[in-house]
TrEMBL record:
Pathway: Amino-acid degradation; L-proline degradation into L-glutamate; L-glutamate from L-proline: step 1/2. It comes from Glossina fuscipes. It comes from the Eukaryota. The keyword Cell division does not apply. Its EC number is 1.5.5.2. Residues 52-83 are annotated as: Disordered. GO terms for molecular function: FAD binding; proline dehydrogenase activity. Converts proline to delta-1-pyrroline-5-carboxylate. The keyword Oxidoreductase applies. This is Proline dehydrogenase. GO terms for biological process: L-proline catabolic process to L-glutamate. Belongs to the proline oxidase family.
Amino acid sequence: MAFLRTICAQRSTTNLVYSYSGSSSNSSSLGVGGKYYYFIGSKVPSSVRQLSYDASDDNDNESELKSTSSSSRRLHHHRHQLQQNHNQYFQPHQQKQLLAKVLFAPVFNHRQLVHTDAAKSQTVTAATIEEEKAIPKKEARFRPPAPKIPENPQRDPLDVGFNDPLAAFKSKTTWELVRAYVVYMICSFEKIVEHNMTLMKLANRVLGNKLFTVLMKATFYGHFVAGEDQIKIIPTLERLRSFGVKPILDYSVEEDISQEEAEKREVEASTSTSSFVNKEDALPQYQVDKTFADRRYKVNSARTYFYLNEATCERNMEVFIKCLEAVAGATFGTGITAIKLTALGRPQLLLQLSEVISRARQYFEELVGGDGNVLNYHKTINDLEKYYVSLGIDNKEVKNFLKNVTSDKEGILHLFPWTGIVNDEFQLSDTFRVPDPKTGQMRRLISQIPPKEEEMFRNMIRRLNTIVKTAEELDVRIMVDAEQTYFQPAISRITLEMMRKYNKDKAIVFNTYQCYLREAFREVTTDLEQAKRQNFYFGAKLVRGAYMEQERARAEALGYPDPINPNFDATTDMYHKTLTECLRRIKILKDCGEDAKKIGIMVASHNEDTVRYAIQKMKEIGISPEDKVICFGQLLGMCDYITFPLGQSGYSAYKYIPYGPVQEVLPYLSRRAQENKGVLQKIRKEKRLLLAEIFRRMRTGQLFYKPKGNYVPI
């Protein structure tokens, strides 16, 4: 304790405060000498918790209280009481153990050394603090112990017809099977599903919160949601793991706001405050329209965030980080967290950036007389320079523009220095300027953005960087969800740059590609080519898509080409074509002796034909489940007859796991009911298999069967 008092004395003498930022779940904190440390997984008695205080507060209080002797006595008494509390609980040998923990086991990953004297205010990074140099950066966060692996993990043969009820439901109790059957029966009644949100609110008013919660847990909530918080979902995650299935975690709390409120928020958040915006020259696809401002319109299978303010985005970031910590704690690095970029920033910024990307493509197509992405033309900077010279454009600004063009030995990759977009200093307005072939002058591809909106953009990038950095430290993967086509160019561009920054040794960041889009194949191949040429690991989740009806209606109303494939079969063909190209490139990597994991693909589909196609192509090309380059994913409570047989036979299988309080996930449950109404064929098969398994258990006396798996996820 003498040494601790010395530290405190030194802090007072040098007028320094150590401040830490970070979070940790399921832990107790202790503050000593201004530092905060966490004891993971154990409860600290209240007498010890009283030690936890902010030393910087003492500095402020002390300066205010020096003027009166009575106040000084109170301050002295406060510190004396802390000392007594500590001595009461800790014996001398325990004090040494505490000191060792305090000095050598900090869990926070961000430290600042700040002078409290305003005249000497400065920030010093942790790298300059000698005693912390020995602490490896990636050990800053708590890592759970490795799971106990069964000595002889079970593997079952796979029925690719997905007709085996035992394989589908051996992870379920009989009660869970009955509940699933009842839920699917309810989803078969169109009128009930159509008015499900109204009925749930009515039931809540009639029954009261407690009875309504019991009812929901016995039906829809219990079937589609894993639990209320990070602690209560752990049994579900552990059971999934024991049957060979891994989680994609999502905190599924959604705002239940009216259409009018949604439209008001979206219009305000999608309109620039700049007076320099040229609306006459704007591309219609990237402009907000009040008719479609409520982005929930005709969307059942995707969650929607509506921007309110920057503080809300900060809270969303914290929620995503809590998801990462929950996944890391329960899945030991095999889990995934899904995020949306519209949760992290103002949608207007994504609209403007998407428009810039579209204009840049048009600009380059005009220069070369072709159709497609810049990097596909294999044009060099010299080619571009000669073109400008031939037009008589050869000034200092053009030369500076050419210096910033991103290229490699195969040609131009990007017209703009996109690598800077993941940095906080990236300036939107100053970056997107190109030489105008008509005037010979530089012209903007984006309207002048006010400083406040530039700051909002940097905030969005900072939040995303924080999330991905946390995922990297916790060894958890991030899947950036796809959104509407008017946001998607910006989302994909930002996600690709996050891949380039963080996917250096393995795939941490995954992008999502919607195969109902006409451009899906070209977008995936372009991004695969960029990953190859810039040497980073590429991660992709392939989905059919969630916004088809909304996208078609919006395109028709605003007068731009329909971005959606003409029919279901065309979407299936696009999905299979895109997947085959990814598998072909993985095979090339294997044949060349390179790391096949440089390309990682999730087949996120409830369509068993697509899953069968992927399995067949894997066999044809020579890719085994053990290569860990292809995985499969479905929603919790849907298509169990696909997910569990895959996981139990050694394939990498995931369940999308929503969680959150009952009252706050009602919008999510409403969408699940609507989605199931639209896939009656799948429901029919699932109901048939559920009944078959229930009757089998009745015949064999297994009605009280308790699931216990001996599988290990691949």
